[in-house]
């Protein structure tokens, strides 16, 4: 190698430290909006801090932890060049898992991996995360942005996050509380949420040849706008239910669909019977099924079909639960019931046709 050959550098390898610093400055104002009284310090430390003395009011606090991403929904955001909603999806996927056991989400951290740092884009992603944390009632205490040239393309990125919540031990929700006679309440999804996008993208983009800017009368908007509809954040609504009435279990309807996720909180010996005629899925689900010739079984085990969260409550709590959810602007309805399980039954079955 001659003396005139330029020396290697981080910038020459594709990592722009100055762009990363700019992104941090741009995101600071959004992080500042997503705090709780227990938040300690600000953005820029090596670790996020949260004042655990707040847990002293609990007799036996159980910490709940969850981590998730948003899957290939990020490919739709990149295709549309719209990046300020995907963060809300990320928060929803984490905090709505936390609240299933009755835990109040306390704080989150995020991880954003990019092929090339575009400061405005990173700040837009963080804006969505901060807005999601505000909607969930939790703090955004830290995160990491990593630049991986050569691994991701210049306009590619992925996001992940982790959250922590707390629940009093004697108020822990789950399958052990569920009894025969309990009623199953559905809470409407805002759309596809953040699961099944590999199937949806394959059907709409690859098989049907549609693109994100296609106007679809049944949807009342473009394909891209429909697919980017943020995942509903149910955490505060579920916590409100636990305060106003008796709840035995929740189930967050994500990958695997309604039956598989509800089965996780139906104990041995019991069975959940759900009635499809109690709701009509939004048009996007029918379009995916029709355009892709997707069998109902395949749709129902891949997509939420319009149900984003489920609550299992005793019979005398149904009216109060539905009233609480209606008051909070959540469309909810009686979906089914819990009965004793026959030897040859699955944990969850759906019957009937959609209304």
TrEMBL record:
Principal location: cytoplasm
Annotated Gene Ontology cellular component terms: cytosol
Top-level taxonomic group: Bacteria
Span of domain PurM-like N-terminal: 59-167
Keyword field contains Cytoplasm: yes
Cell compartments where the protein resides: Cytoplasm
UniProtKB keywords: ATP-binding, Cytoplasm, Ligase, Nucleotide-binding, Purine biosynthesis
GO molecular function, one term: phosphoribosylamine-glycine ligase activity
Gene Ontology BP terms: 'de novo' IMP biosynthetic process; adenine biosynthetic process
Similarity field: Belongs to the AIR synthase family.
Record-given protein name: Phosphoribosylformylglycinamidine cyclo-ligase
Species annotation: Streptomyces lonarensis
Gene name linked to the record: purM
